[in-house]
Specification:
heterodimer, A: 115 residues, B: 112 residues, 5-stranded mixed sheet, 4-stranded antiparallel sheet, 9 strands
Chain lengths: 115, 112
């Protein structure tokens, strides 16, 4: 499926590096999400954007900085990360439907390793 | 915390039906039951969802009990590619793009 794409698929970075993860959705949705999945843990929500406005920040450290320039693109800027931030970072999108369901569709994820 | 309870793991022979149970005894009247699966190190894949009635699509069938306290996802003819972790999630309908809360899911192993 190519509805939600993420780049890069794999990223290795040092603790002093600055990098960005990119997500793009081709589904015409109005909401986008960042989730984190650490080894052997359930997916955890990080951020939610509705109509380009951040509506939820799930107590994420400031070394993670999201950006949503338009409803189709979502970025996650990374700086001074820690080794424990190594995880699979997943992007999702959905379309809000009044009185209906808003199914979320996920991208393939970016596997991040922090050395 | 996830509002659902699922077995940790299950095995299924290739070609047979895989029946994955889920308990959601505290489900509210306006909450849907969603199923996703995650193949190793990939993004979760949407499978199916329902409110009260049984649902079927090209991937699976969803059977919801009359009291809505439990449901079963059925993969009618399991293949090796169906090996994955399956997540059952309850979520309010039309809830303004609220996030999904994932539990630990059921690890389904399809065996040749």
């Amino acid at each position: 499926e190519t509805g939600v794409t993420q780049t890069p698929r794999h990223l290795v970075m040092g603790m002093t590096n600055k990098k960005s993860l990119k997500c793009e959705q081709h589904l015409g949705h109005n909401a986008m999400y960042w989730y984190k999945q650490s080894a052997k843990k359930p997916l955890e929500l990080m951020f939610v954007y509705n109509f380009k406005e951040q509506t939820e920040n799930n107590s994420v450290p400031s070394r993670f900085s999201p950006e949503c320039p338009n409803s189709s693109h979502l970025f996650l800027h990374l700086h001074t990360l820690q080794p424990e931030d190594s995880a699979l970072y997943l992007c999702a999108s959905s379309q809000e439907r009044v009185g209906g369901t808003d199914t979320q569709y996920f991208g393939p994820g970016t596997r991040l390793t922090v050395l | 915390d996830a509002k659902t309870t699922q077995p940790t793991s299950m095995d299924c022979a290739e070609g047979r039906a895989a029946n994955l149970p889920c308990n959601h005894s505290t489900i509210s009247g306006n909450e849907y039951v969603y199923w996703y699966r995650q193949i190793h190190s990939q993004g979760p894949q949407y499978i199916i969802h329902g409110l009260k009635n049984n649902e079927t699509n090209e991937m699976a069938s969803l059977i919801i009990t009359e009291d809505r306290k439990s449901s079963t996802l059925i993969l009618p003819h399991a293949t090796l590619r169906d090996t994955a972790v399956y997540y059952c999630i309850v979520r309010v309908a039309g809830s303004g793009n609220t996030p999904l809360v994932f539990g630990k899911g059921t690890r389904l192993s399809v065996i040749a």
